């Protein structure tokens, strides 16, 4: 992690000018429990470092119930994947996890020239409104495993791509989903049904690969 020393110095100056209003924490964001930093209500507003934007987002989605909302800037392609609808090329694991936990709004696009120095890519800001129901850690983990398996081989039929979870046919039947469908055709609600079925059977069929 490389810190922008000028930004850190400017923030430190601001914090000094407004005692008690701003605290500067120099740390690897991947190792920080954002929900433990402050009492509720909490929001996250960030121009993310794009190289770690996805793991940061997934961590915050896991704890989404702790936040009132988030406004986050991503590389445009990532923002499009987050907000994508089923049956599109951009729809994938990140779309399902994000839209399952939050209402996601594609708020604005920014050209490279909006920054100095200009990056090579376009950027976009997504607004996240956490949904009322908190799935809890076990169901979130089941959804992560399910979407990783389903989209790991997105062109395959689900009865094939979900084999890695073990008991794919029984899982699909429990969720009422045809095994001949492909991951990208499933709605977030259908993924929710399958994640619950996966969790209900104990998360793992005997002998299945972890
Ligand atoms: C505001 S810039 C983002 C710029 C642009 N979005 C990009 O990714 O090129 C992100 C800031 O996060 C810092 N940063 C990078 N990785 C970090 C990490 N793991 N934890 C905390 N800060 C990090 C960088 O030093 C930089 O100052």
Task: Write a compact overview of the structure shown.
The chain has 210 residues and is of the alpha+beta class.
What does this structure look like?
The chain has helices at 5-17, 34-37, 53-62, 76-83, 93-101, 136-152, 158-161, 168-175, 188-200; strands at 43-47, 69-75, 102-110, 123-130. The longest helix is centred in the last third of the chain and has 17 residues, at 136-152. It has 210 residues and is of the alpha+beta class. It has 3 domains: 1-32, no CATH class; 38-130, Rossmann fold; 136-200, Helicase, Ruva Protein, domain 3 (Orthogonal Bundle), CATH 1.10.8. Helix 3 (53-62) links the parallel strand 1 and strand 2 (69-75). A 4-stranded mixed sheet has the order 1-2-4-3. The structure holds S-adenosylmethionine. S-adenosylmethionine (SAM) binds next to loops. InterPro entries: KsgA/Erm, rRNA_Ade_diMease-like_C, rRNA_Ade_methylase_Trfase_N, SAM-dependent_MTases_sf. Belongs to the class I-like SAM-binding methyltransferase superfamily. rRNA adenine N(6)-methyltransferase family.
Which structural traits does this protein have?
210 residues; alpha+beta; Rossmann fold; Helicase, Ruva Protein, domain 3; 3 domains; four-stranded mixed sheet; disordered C terminus; binds S-adenosylmethionine
């Amino acid at each position: 992690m490389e810190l922008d020393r000028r930004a850190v110095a400017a923030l430190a100056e601001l914090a000094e000018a407004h005692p008690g209003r701003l605290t500067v924490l120099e740390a690897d964001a991947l190792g920080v429990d954002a929900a433990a930093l402050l009492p509720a209500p909490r929001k996250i507003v960030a121009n993310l470092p794009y190289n770690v934007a996805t793991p940061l987002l997934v961590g915050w989605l896991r704890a989404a119930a702790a936040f009132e909302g988030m406004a986050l800037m991503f590389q445009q392609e990532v923002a499009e994947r987050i907000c994508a609808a089923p049956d599109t090329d951009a729809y994938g694991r990140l779309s399902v996890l994000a839209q399952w936990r939050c209402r996601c709004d594609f708020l604005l696009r920014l050209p490279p020239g909006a920054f100095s120095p200009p990056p090579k890519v376009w950027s976009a800001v997504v607004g996240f409104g956490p949904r009322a129901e908190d799935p809890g850690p076990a169901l979130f983990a089941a959804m992560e495993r399910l979407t990783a398996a389903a989209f790991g081989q997105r062109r395959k039929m689900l009865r094939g791509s979900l084999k890695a979870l073990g008991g794919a046919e029984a899982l699909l039947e429990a969720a009422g989903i045809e095994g001949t469908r492909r991951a990208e055709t499933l709605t977030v609600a259908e993924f929710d049904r399958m994640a619950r079925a996966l969790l209900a059977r104990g998360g793992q069929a005997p002998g299945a690969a972890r």
